[in-house]
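Table S2 (text version). Query chain:
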Amino acid sequence: MNETPESTVLDPTAAPATADAVGGVEAADDGPGVLETRSMDVFYGDFKAVADVSMSFTFNEISALIGPSGCGKSTVLRSLNRMNDLIPTARVDGEVRYHGTNIYAGDVDPVEIRRRIGMVFQKPNPFPKSIFDNIAWGAKINGFKGSKSDMKDLVQGALEQAALWDEVKDKLTESGLSLSGGQQQRLCIARAIAVQPDVILMDEPCSALDPIATLRIEELMLELKENYSIIIVTHNMQQAARVSDRTAFFNVELDTTGQRTGHLVEFSPTDVLFTTPKEKATEDYITGRFG
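Corresponding structure-token output:
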């Protein structure tokens, strides 16, 4: 893994920055895609987990990644903000471009990338801190220089965007761990958006939730796409059909040695993929013939 230079700490209350401020790499004109992969391969040691993935994600849209277990959906998602860097054997070939900047370039700070491309995990993981401090913490470590009043406004704004403010405004000093599962997940979403990214990655954010909490998170995603690009991994095809604008289907190929490598089969508008898929493998999966 390349060692990165010290980066400039940005004001999390400012609007999302353009790519030429990310690691000092000059931005390119990348058209409508806020984030895209170009011939991306992901390895864990000698094992190629995902091969040759090229996709472009548009602002103000929800993109869903679906496919059978082991096809590399979560691996692809984690590669979009360099979370896989935390795995010593992981490496990415090809490019992942954010506003035209390759985020795997040697002078790009992965911490800064994760501020701009936030992540919400499968299991809610609030910090063992107060509800208020769960939100304020990210802003503080990113160099927030506002007043206490400004911080209160930032916390309230993030909780309002996550549709949680009315439920917690009278108990901000209580532990985030005291909330229900669905509330904890919305708290984690509020925490992610408090540092004002413009892309939010969600790795099966509803798999640990009951149907009512799941519906609330889905409603929230539809509200949030007005201000963010959202990319979600889900095993629930009905969820993908309900919330996403575009859906990518991944599948697994076996080589002659039996090694399983994930690959992108097709990436289409959701209504097209579920009604008239281009590939037979996609049709077989969405009709329940395998997976």
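Notes on Table S2: Residues 36 and 181 are 32 Å apart (CA to CA). The longest strand covers residues 33-44.
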